[in-house]
Amino acid sequence: MSETVLKIENLSKTYSLGKRDVKALSNLNLEVKKGEFVAIMGPSGSGKTTLLNVLGCIDKPSAGKVLLDNVDVAGLPESELYKIRRNKIGFVFQSFNLLPYLNARENVELPMENNEKFKSREDRSNRAKELLAMVGLSGREEHRPQRLSQGEQQRVAIARALANDPAIVLADEPTGNLDVKNKQETVRLLANLNLTEGTTIIVVTHDGQVAAHTERVLFLTDGRITKQKEGMHLAKKNICPYCKGKIQPTDETCPNCGKTIRVKKKPADVNNTAA
């Protein structure tokens, strides 16, 4: 497989609650390859959110290493961590976290404002429109969050997470606030982006159906990875995630049900646009 994008070594995180120390993570070791789609499952209190916060450079470990693109981010100062969060990590949250006074395009543009690859407003706008089209929201770019359904809001959030072409996307219960139909559409979208764009994704979820769409499922108990199993990731197995019919690696629409199964990748010319 391709190179390692994320590696954690002997990772531990301990919190002090009064006179008592609580070990949220205990000597974790994990390696994620570029282009992988990984799910993390476990009961409440197992350490899933703590792990995601450490991987996302929101919280620092008590011990161990977190290597992101071969850089140990565990010991970096906040003045460097914010650049890592902006440029290397995309975040998708359960509650979407869109700014209500910005429209969909402006929400997607926001992470790009201090990125040297997108110096002009036109570059940022073009990139945002391209990403919104990729997640199926062409024509909805000027709508504010309150005019979008919950499923559409999560699609905007996913587009925003991809804005700076991050090394990894971290999704914390991305379907938790969605109904069944939108949950299915969202997880298929993530699987499709992983397949067609090669986006590396780690998703924390309580939902076994969501985890099944990934290619590797890790189970966390008491701050430790206790087991893992292979996920289905139907699109990578050349099976349509909608009708379960057979598809070919080159198919963009399912020959059986006619639904779009892969987004055709477009060249990102905007990245090379001179300022």
Could you please describe the fold and organization of this structure?
By secondary structure, the protein is an alpha/beta fold. The chain has a domain at 33-61 and 72-232: Rossmann fold (3-Layer(aba) Sandwich). The chain has seven helices and ten strands. Residues 263-275 have low confidence and may be disordered.
Secondary structure layout plus pairing:
Blueprint: E1 4-17, E2 20-33, E3 37-41, H1 48-55, E4 63-68, E5 71-72, H2 78-88, E6 89-92, H3 104-109, H4 121-134, H5 150-161, E7 168-172, H6 180-197, E8 201-204, H7 208-212, E9 216-221, E10 224-230
Parallel strand pairs: 3-8, 3-9, 6-7, 7-8
Antiparallel strand pairs: 1-2, 1-4, 4-5, 9-10
Helix pairs in contact: 4-5, 5-6
Cα end-to-end separation: 36 Å
What fraction, in percent, of the residue positions are helical? 25-40%
- Major β-sheet annotation: 6 strands, mixed
Mean pLDDT: 87
Oligomer: single chain
Offer a concise description of the structure.
This protein has 275 residues and is of the alpha/beta class.
Keywords:
275 residues, alpha/beta, Rossmann fold, 4-stranded antiparallel sheet, 24% strand, globular
